[in-house]
Write a structure and sequence with these properties.
The complex is a heterodimer of chains A (about 110) and B (about 110).
Chain A: E1 4-7, E2 10-14, E3 19-25, E4 31-37, E5 44-49, E6 55-58, E7 61-65, E8 71-76, E9 85-93, E10 96-99, E11 103-108
Parallel strand pairs in A: 2-11
Antiparallel strand pairs in A: 1-3, 3-8, 4-5, 4-9, 6-7, 7-8, 9-10, 9-11
Chain B: E1 5-7, E2 10-13, E3 19-24, E4 31-38, E5 42-50, E6 53-57, E7 64-68, E8 74-78, E9 87-94, E10 104-105, E11 109-113
Parallel strand pairs in B: 2-11
Antiparallel strand pairs in B: 1-3, 3-8, 4-5, 4-9, 5-6, 7-8, 9-10, 9-11
Classes of the chains: A mainly beta (about 110), B mainly beta (about 110).
Chain lengths: ~110, ~110
């Protein structure tokens, strides 16, 4: 059983469309991180959110941390084929990251 | 600045054998964590080391062990390999903060047990 639940599990969209990935938990985390992983590679850190209610924007990506520090969302505007990958959220407590199962995003050209 | 280096990248072992995986963290990072990634279970935490001390351990059998050296390099050992140990083993390096840490992953070691 995953400590963090991600939804949806799979997402396939056309280039130029927007998408949102959700990450929910019953646990409170001191920080939450989002990663993107490509096949055969390790996850690459996209962002860390620490403060409840925090919103971070990185170009076309917007990350939000819930007020209670239990949930988060990742929104991609005008998706591009280069955004294709496995998106993972991870909560940090007690020196360890607990990962969600991931959302596989495919952006079709 | 060099990233996290894991060796070897690929490994094929037979059931019952043991294996040792190596991880060199980013220079200056003192925390090294290990994760197992499988299609069915996703990314699962194995253990974390900071300054040669294990600070946390996941729910894996005792066949999985690790250690960290004074230069922060870490090794992970799996004894009496089982088919179910086939997975991508990932190492992550960080400063090791208490409240917040940004983890940087290596490319992983793909272990296949036959």
């Amino acid at each position: 059983t995953q400590l963090l639940e991600q939804s949806p599990q799979f997402l396939s969209i056309q280039e130029g469309e927007n998408l949102t990935v959700y990450c929910n938990s019953s646990s409170v985390f001191s920080s939450l991180q989002w990663y993107r992983q490509e096949p055969g590679e390790g996850p690459v850190l996209l962002v860390t959110v620490v403060t409840g209610g925090e919103v971070k924007k990185l170009k076309r990506l917007t990350f939000q941390f819930g007020d209670a520090r239990k949930d988060s969302s990742l929104h991609i505007t005008a998706a591009q084929p280069g955004d294709t990958g496995l998106y993972l959220c991870a909560g940090f407590n007690d020196y360890k990251l607990s990962f969600g199962a991931g959302t596989t995003v495919t952006v079709r050209a | 600045k060099a990233g996290v280096t894991q060796t070897p990248r690929y490994l094929i072992k037979t059931r019952g054998q043991q294996v040792t995986l190596s991880c060199s963290p980013i220079s200056g990072h003192r925390s090294v964590s290990w994760y197992q990634q499988t299609p069915g279970q996703g990314l699962q935490f194995l253990f974390e080391y900071f300054s040669e001390t294990q600070r946390n351990k996941g729910n894996f059998p005792g066949r999985f062990s690790g250690r960290q050296f004074s230069n922060s390099r870490s090794e992970m050992n799996v004894s009496t390999l089982e088919l179910g140990d086939s997975a991508l083993y990932l190492c992550a390096s960080s400063w090791g903060g208490v409240m917040n840490t940004e983890a940087f992953f290596g490319q992983g070691t793909r272990l296949t047990v036959v």
